[in-house]
Amino acid sequence: MSVHDYHARTLQGKEIPLSDYRDHVLLIVNTASKCGFTPQYRGLQELYEKFHDRHFEILGFPSNQFAHQEPGESEEIEEFCQVNFGVSFPMFEKTDVKGGNAHPLFRHLTEKAPGVLGSKTIKWNFTKFLIDKQGRVVKRYAPQTKPDKIEKDIIKLLEDSSSS
């Protein structure tokens, strides 16, 4: 299976097949509005603006599973992201990213890219997963990894897969 085999619902309630992002490099991030890492939205938006025209997408998945740092409803999350950080990349409904009710996409991501010491769980908000154009999970980044530190890996995937 690949990331392209899953579906997710946007903040506006529309079910999207992730196969819509075939031939795109993706960065999938679990997000939160009231987290110490929330300012990373700014860096994520900068990456999005820089590479979007080269078939790069960021997919944001708000989660309230870490210290209840995403308490808002879809409309509140969308407004917060746009007003405070100018977020224009796709944002999805609040999602469980760990545990028995974890979205199947996040079970897939953590299986293909385990964390430290092989952990198959997401430990905190703003864990990031880099996906190649074929939907394969390439790398997992810790919440502390700032978006600009991922740029070289994004460029490599964009260049590697442009010749395929």
Automatic annotation (TrEMBL):
Alphabetized PROSITE patterns for the sequence: GLUTATHIONE_PEROXID_1, GLUTATHIONE_PEROXID_2, GLUTATHIONE_PEROXID_3, THIOREDOXIN_2
Location of the active site: 35
Name of this chain's protein: Glutathione peroxidase
SUPFAM superfamilies: Thioredoxin-like (SSF52833)
Keyword Manganese: no
Recorded superkingdom: Bacteria
Gene3D superfamilies xrefs: Glutaredoxin
Domain Thioredoxin: 1-159
One Pfam family from the record: GSHPx
Keywords: Oxidoreductase, Peroxidase
Any single GO BP term: cellular response to oxidative stress
InterPro entries referenced in this protein's UniProt entry, alphabetically: Glutathione_peroxidase (IPR000889), GPX_AS (IPR029759), GPX_CS (IPR029760), Thioredoxin-like_sf (IPR036249), Thioredoxin_domain (IPR013766)
Entry's family note: Belongs to the glutathione peroxidase family.
Keyword Oxidoreductase appears in the UniProt entry: yes
Entry GO MF terms: peroxidase activity
